Amino acid sequence: MKFVAPLIATALCVTLASCAAPARKEKVAADAPAPSDTPAAGRMHGYVIERRYGDFAMVGGKEVRFDVEYGWDYDRATGVRRTFDTTGKLLTSEDLINGEMALGEIERERVRQLVRTQPQLKAIANGPDVVIWGEGFLWRVPGDPYCDRGSRCIHAIIAKDGGLTAVGHAMVDLQTDRVVYPFYDGSKLKSSTGE
Fold first, then answer.
1. Fold of 102-181
2. Taking CA 94 as the corner, what is the angle to CA 89 and CA 97, rounded to the nearest 5 degrees?
3. Which of 50, 113, 128, 183 has the fewest Cβ atoms surrounding its Cβ within 10 A?
């Protein structure tokens, strides 16, 4: 009988430890909309370049040329700014917490795919002459269960008549690869980006 108490204590510790397991990284609320039917194979991973351009600065009275690059690191859920010399050597890399850079083409296409395959949006998003605008209406709202720090939320507009008449609005989080608000109307959330 003297071994029963330690066994019960051990079992209790194992049970409590399993209950205290860390929460999942991705935030998905109980009332979350159904996921899109888009294959997971197209999900964003790694570092995706948004834009790169040449620039210069005056250093010691001489013009020094370099390249500046902006992108989103999906593995770390953060924006990144990198500078390179003219030979391509990395000079600096800086994380941009809550970075608000526009989307690259591969990201824009993923937004369109997620909207078109979301069960609640399929009927309007795949109609004749419908365009999905999701080029870079970035959205971040402090305290929002989906579109807060570390998210890559995009305001997608579903428009008919070749893109002239809006028939629906949705919020897509590319970081979690989900349409998080299929029927966004703008009245309940306030964006930190001024939209």
1. Nuclear Transport Factor 2; Chain: A, (3.10.450)
2. 155
3. 128
Among 115, 117, 108, which residue's Cα sits nearest to residue 167? 115
- Please list the residues that pair with 78 across neighbouring strands: 73
d(CA 170, CA 183): 5
| Per-domain boundaries in the chain | 47-96, 102-181
**Residue 156 one-letter amino acid:** A
DSSP H or E segment with residue 6: helix 4-19
Local structure of residue 156 (DSSP, 8 states): E
Q: Which position has the token pair 């029927």?
A: 183
pLDDT of residue 124: 94
Does pLDDT of 173 surpass 90? yes
Q: Is 113 helix (H, G, I), strand (E, B) or coil?
A: helix
| Amino acid making up residue 134 | G
* 148-172 residue pLDDT tens: 988 999 999 999 998 899 999 999 9
